[in-house]
Batch of 4 targets.
Target 1
Amino acid sequence: MPTSLNPTSSPSAHLRFFSAPPRPAFALLALAACTTLATSQDLIHKAPKQDKTIVITGATIHPVTAPDIENGTVMFRDGVITGVYDAKAWQDWTQKVSLDKNSFIFIDAAGKHVYPGFITALSQLGITEIQAVAATNDLSEVGNVAPEVQPTVAVNPDSTLLPVTRRNGILTAGIHPSGGLIPGQVGVIRLDGWTVEDMQVKVGNYTMAGLMVNWPRVRPIRAWWMDTPEDEQLKRIRENLAALEKTFDTALAYARERQANPDVPTDLRWEAMRPIFTLALAKESGIADEAGLKPSTPLFIEANDADQIASALTFCEQRNLRCVIVGGREADRAAELLKRTGTTVILRGVQNMPQRDDSPYDDAYTLPKRLHDAGITFAITHGDDTAHERNLPYAAGTAIAFGLPHDIAIKALTIHPAQILGIDRQLGSLEAGKSATLFISTGDPLEVTSDINRAFIDGREIDLRTKQTELAKKYLDRYKQTGDIK
């Protein structure tokens, strides 16, 4: 394209230059993007509030935090589990209480299985739809340090990725932003609701489960594809580490001031970081007994290399900060430090290629077993594109195939992520008093051949139809009409 117009050309030539229609290829691309946005809308109705007590009978109940119950019963009312019974306990209870059938819904689940809803500890469901269409991605904010950013505020309740994800039993998700050193907060959502407020799961008194930190690499990359000189990489590493030091020093100074004088003007960035300093400020005040203290909100630190993990843990230990390692590709190499500091891990993917040239082919597949053997608590996430989040159970299945005990794999999708996200008093297991967020499966939900028949979020029965199930019915009808099948 010319940078200036030829002064000798005619006015009509100038007009043609400025008002030329878009190229056909670009026009088609723009139309396709608009069409995609228009059709990327979940048309499934949201679940209504539970209005009757629901009783699931005859199933194998998997409480997760207690032994499995054959021929068990789960009862829940107003979105809360009121009891989990074996056959005898249920019989004893029914003899004492008159069951008004107008107030109860009975579900016969004989031969089936009941599990607590799976939890994906970190995902970007609802804040991204199609990676190739920028307008559907709301993953990051401007700036390198943005602790005030709340990604759950941007969640689209009508994302088409939500129905297909919960169709596989994933009913709760930790949502995190990306980009920069401190891209924002980690929030938690239930995968059904009319509005963002309906979907948000509170973590204590906060809507924040933690603060996301992308830890800088601590050594340069010497791979063949790296074209940045080593000295330039080292310079950036030092700058990023210095920026983190300065950010946390400033935020701690602000937290001290606010504690001493609540009338100090509010700064949204540093205010968002105050919950992470609970323990640090308590120790500064001379409180020795940590047992009665409210735990600090953790940092969710993205770190994969062993030395990167060690650097992050040392930083947190020196500053009395809680942290969770996210990614953790070499977490087993830092197992002793993780165990000593009581740090948990969110594994970002199990079905990955080896990280090192000299690693065995199954390095990622066996990592959950190695962490379990080392006594490290961890959650499993799928780690692939958000559109494939539905495959989370099969990532856990891969870990089982490579040595992880089945019960630990189930915990890595239920109670462990609930504990890591700080929502284990509400979710993660089937216990009286917890949210009735659960599903009924025809078999082991980590097997591709199993099907999830019914699912409930806070006692509300979720419509398990998806775009895929509706298309399957559509084309099945087509072949019935043409006579190709009966």
Target 2
Amino acid sequence: MDASTMKRIQSDPNYQKLVTERKSFGWTLAIITLVLYYGYIAIVAFAPSIIATKVSGDITIGIIMGVALILLSIVLTGLYVLRANSTYDDLTSAIVNAARIGGKK
């Protein structure tokens, strides 16, 4: 890809929107995930009695929280995939089409 094509793509409003939205959404999800994981570890470190509380038989609050954490991570990943398959793919297609049209002129 030559420099003029690269500059044309980088100046495309769809490209700028894609980069901004993807970065913002990605960081938001990353921060949520880190807060959840570090929060869980903080509870294990500073309030182990809460985690050790039995709910039913051998099932403790810690096990429930751990499973919930894994499920929330899957949900957050699913949210990213949904956005990537809709908004981000549409923007990418628009960028590619604009680059093709611009390259033929």
Target 3
Amino acid sequence: MNEDVLNTSVRRFLKTVGVTSQREIEKAVREAIASGKLKGNEALPAKMTLTVGGISLTHTVEDTIELE
């Protein structure tokens, strides 16, 4: 195994996940505010589950996304 290749690949994957997830969350929040589903001052519970095939890895992170 090449540690540098692994590190680069994992970082690239996490960057893609982070950027696309942020865009999707922001889009959904804006749409929910525009439709009246949210007021814009809520704290939203969030959960992300990462799975990696071949090594049976499942890792869940839970936190809160605050709008104000």
Target 4
Amino acid sequence: MIYIDANVFIYAIENHPEYGEACKRILLDIEKGRLKACASILVLVEIINVLTKINKMIEERGKRPLDVRKNVDAILSLPIVWFDLNFLIIKRASEYTYPVTGVDYVHAATMETNIVWEVISADKELDKIKFTRRIDPREYK
């Protein structure tokens, strides 16, 4: 099982010029059952937060915003194992000293607690967490 970071979903939704196609391929593999995926519900929080920010920029340009609910519903329809946050994960996250953000601590603690060692992410910061192996979306096969 591989942990999926929020940026994979975001880049697929916004059709990112560098990562969009690779991220769409990853989500298609999840949908078709070729990739066993998991994530924290924190990923969903991050997705809603980013889509809301993107919509603010889109609306300022006078364009039609993204449908946040439709995108979240599409994500939730995928066969992904969603890990809840709990006190054990938060406690473990508070013990890390890696040079990354607190949000990444929570992702790492979720992975460690659930014995998941690989993450698909464009975020190179995750390379600083020594017990994980980050797979760049463009390198996913």
